[in-house]
Design brief:
- This protein has about 1250 residues and is of the alpha+beta class.
- Among the domains are: about 90 residues, Sandwich (Immunoglobulin-like), CATH 2.60.40.1120; about 110 residues, TonB-dependent receptor, plug domain (Ferric Hydroxamate Uptake Protein, Chain A, domain 1, Beta Complex), CATH 2.170.130; about 100 residues, no CATH class.
- Helices cover about 15% and strands about 40% of the residues.
- It has 19 helices and 55 strands.
- The strands form ten sheets. The chain has a 22-stranded antiparallel beta barrel. It has a six-stranded mixed beta sheet with strand order 25-24-28-29-34-35. Strands 3-2-5-6-9 form a five-stranded mixed beta sheet, with no helix packed on it.
Length: about 1250
Amino acid sequence: MNVRTAALLALLSLAPALRPLAAQIGSTTDVLTGVVKDTTGRPVAEAIVEATSIETGIMRTTKTDPRGRYTLLFPDGGGQYRVIVRSIGKTPIMRTVARQADEDRLVTNFTMGAPVARLEEIVVRGRQARPTGEGGPPAPGTTERVLNANQVARLPLDASDLTILASLAPGVVSISGTDTTAAGFSVAGQRPTSNSVTLDGLTFGGASVPQDAVRNTRVITNSYDVARGQFSGGQVASTTMSGTNAVSGTGNYGFRDRDLALSTGDGSPFAQGYTQNQISGGVGGPFARNKAFYFLSAQGRLRNDGLQSLLTASPASLTRLGLQPDSASRFLGFLGRTGLPLSTDDSTTSRATDDFSSIQRFDVHVTGTQTLTLRGDYRHTSTEPTGVSALSVPAAGGTTRSSSGGGMATVSSRFGNKVLNELRGYLSGTSQHGAAFNELPQGRVQVVSALDDGSQTVTNLGFGGNSGLSQRRASTSLEVTEELSFLPGSGTHRLKAGLLYNRSSSSQVIASNLTGTFTFNSIADLEAGRPASFTRTLQPSDRASTSLNEALYLGDIWRPIEALQLTYGARLEHSQFGHPPAYNPIVDQVFGFRTDRLPRETHVSPRMGFTYTVGATGDTPAPPVLTLRGGIGDFRSPIPAALAAAAQSATGLPSAETQLVCVGAGVPTPDWEAYLQDPSTIPTSCAGAGSTQLPTQSPQVTMFDPRFGAPRAWRGSLGAQHRTGTWLLGLDVSVARGVNQSGYTDRNLGSPQFSLASEGGRPVYVPAATIDPARGTLPLSASRLDNRFGQVLLLDSRLGTRSTQATLSANGVTHKGIVINASYTWMRSRDQSSSSEGGGTRGFAGQTAGFDPNARDWARSDYERKHSFLTTVTWPVTAAIEVTGIGRLTAGTPYTPLAGSDINGDGSRNDRAFVYDPATAPDTAIANGMQRLLAGASSGARKCLEAQMGSIAARNSCTGPWQPSLDLQLNVRPMWFGLNRRLTFSVVTQNLLAGVDQVLHGADNLHGWGQVARPSTTLLSVHGFDPVSGRFLYTVNARFGATSIGSNAILIPFQIGLQLRYQLGTARGMFGGFGGGFGGGGGGRGGEGGRGGGLRAGQPGAEGGDLFGRFANMMPNPIKEILDLKVGLRLTDSQEVRLNALSDSLTVENATTAKAIQAEIAKMGANPDGGRMMAVVRPRLEEMRKHLQTALDSAKALLTAEQWNYLPDRIKNPRTFGAGGGAGKRPPE
């Protein structure tokens, strides 16, 4: 059977409900269970129950026990099955079983009668119109977005990036990354470190996988299943492909070239596209049919981006950066004269990023009750150069490389028909290495530029070495899960108990600022060798840590009535760390906290969720009209292991890391030539004059509060989903209250020494006499309670978050087959700190400071996007052409006005700026700067500043502009050269709005459509201190909050990409747009391996007219069934004659419809698009329904009330048509 006919068979079996296009998939094992009885209600023992996955074609068989109960396990079975029950002396029964809502198990009971000549086939569905397709079930109350591999491959995005896939879920906030930091996402206002990524049910350390290896991905934003843990934000749960009974696979090639980008007139890398070649493939099949399977996949990518640096910046780019081209030339000239490196041989104009990944999976059906799955994975990534900013030279960067991999084993077992067990284990390891190009101190130069438009801007230029790239990490992790389920009684309960064991060990050397950093207040100071400060980390140590996370859970999923499902239970979770830091008795004596104490916590997290449906029961063919779902629960994330590792090297002992801080006269004069020749000459102490008053070497201390606990969130949700025709309309409301969020306080911060009257009385923690008047720098040691130590950071978990979110959604298909998923999300989120300290590297500086740097003020969260719209569209234009698109419109990102230096003396450059009123500013420079800023600022920045004049800015008090984006993909599946639509040629756009902007307005008048708005957060920059008036001297940054095209340094051009995708065999889920995996068999031959069309396993499928001739027989004729009951009905001769006429008329109409469907589908060729097929066939199905209803109404008029009531419901309310071609026939023996 070819794909076209197999698809049509599946379409006819699934289309009665005309369900909206969403897949219900998962990553766990499907459980099929139920009871087989005879017509007297007695259990039928030793009945043979045979189930075949419609998606994979894999078949499982069992027998009923003495109570008539059966249970079958299908790891990754797809949620849709053909079940046949046989018993000697009984009529065989065939049923199509499909999950429709949040069922965690598919309960199907059978009643077997005496032998008759026909096989009854019944479609058994769940209670909600959510088409199945892949994987296991969610728990009641779950809110999620599900994406199968075929859907993702057709959209304009990187299908291998799990973080990008997460952004397709309504309400998920994307957090952009850089070349040195990974991208992330936030759910319910929680930090990105609160999320979890799993692959095949176990924690996965990566964010990308081969796109051909992923079967489906679930983005879970609410789940009340106690088996799901290790997160308090969201969870991305992906399932890998497994082999089936037929060889199938995919191959992909993607091509991007910067020559295919639309030029903006700026030929520099600041406005260029990128070049990329990506190739991937996956293939799977059977070692032995229904017994052993394999799936192998790999992906490689070579990417080349233009390197954005001072060497490649055009004059126009420099102006957008806020830097005068003359200043850039002067700076580069100094570097050239002193012999400081500008670039390396390979780092002048481009950045190369290469990565490779591979996943191999093997499944073995060991016995009838046990399945073994083995999986291996490997990933490698390298980037060169990295760490190069737009305002630095390429030589200030370096290289990074990372590798990771692991092996997983899963054993799914059934003991009898009531006990299920699943054991999983995953051993993995990772390694990362980073190195700077040059072993030099890093240099930073503050430059004040007067631009041609009269504005004054402040920028910071970089050169020398790189303070953040000298690092080495290695880690290993072992995770084991065990779940035991029990199905008591009639199967209305599923009790489950499980455990989690996760042990991770890591060793890392993170030598931030290992070679030191010189800062200069101007290019003139740079040329004169007058640095404002010098800092350096001395004695970096190896941070070794071991974390242990364990959990026990007990829960129940209960279906008290058909329409209601409940889940409830609790998790008992425990966390602890090994390798405690060394004990420092002086810290304990002075500050009252032990340095050798690491967190240890045990916590109970209760949960409860529900799903309730209205308008349908299990035996009703139509899905429910209304579905309600919700729940409440406590969710807990693991304590980031890197926090414990950070404490390892910060004990305050002589052997611990020490911070060298030199300011004023204590700053050593740089000798760049000597550093180039011999890195050991880099200063390890301040100049002699700097050590006469205050210590300059300050060991850091990091210690844990004894009550420190893992981050948690209490969360509740309530949602409603209404079905109308082929559309699902939804409303979901959720509330989250984050507790135990981590934060820092500096226990060694002394009392304020004076206050800044010109800044509303801002306290300063160092004496005014210690501040360098010429540069405005402050010595850290002057603010210490005990100047034997630097910052003494207490890490506690007393911070909180509050988030409320509401989402309206509309998902469905139009009469032309256009699939639309649209949503709007309103969000309000507040917290006491948005700093995500997973690595513990930013520490105290991660929290912006106002009056009191140790205060925890409630403010708008970094992760709030008040309004967000998201739409994905799939439009099958013709049988061969399809257009897909992703559109977004998101409210602006919050940001905080900052001062560019340490103002209060706490040692962190995180102080919020004082917003001066031009009318009362302390000097004309500030007054004029503020006037120019307010006159030229964006409306949002101006309103933000005007609302806070005369006070220190509040955290996240400003908001960036709305951010739109739109990308399209054109997919062409030709019939050329016998390809039978197996080859898809795609043209994909990147930043289509930028192209529209340029076409409409021209390259010289761009409006900035599609560009990423990055408002400058620096409002004030320090250039000195006036000891007489006791105030800092500032320069106002005229680019504060600027987001216009003229101030956006990096422009993302409109670019076109080309892609090829070849399908070997049948794509699993390729018709998932309206029902999931079509075709009854395992790959390319409909009936093979399954019961598609009612064929024997392995029997070739019927073709051409024979197949379509069977369609008329498959379509129901209830009038004929009434005639079969004429004896029991006691029909009169007149009734029988008129009913025969009705039956013949309906048979002719069915045949006519079958021929019309045959003609329509034949026009599409082989491998038709599912959405297009549904659009074409739907009018014929509606026509058939009308004929059927008309015939039934006529029959009812012919019969007496007593005769009509005698008829069984399946005749009075028949399905629209048979499913799968088995109706009216005895199953194969």
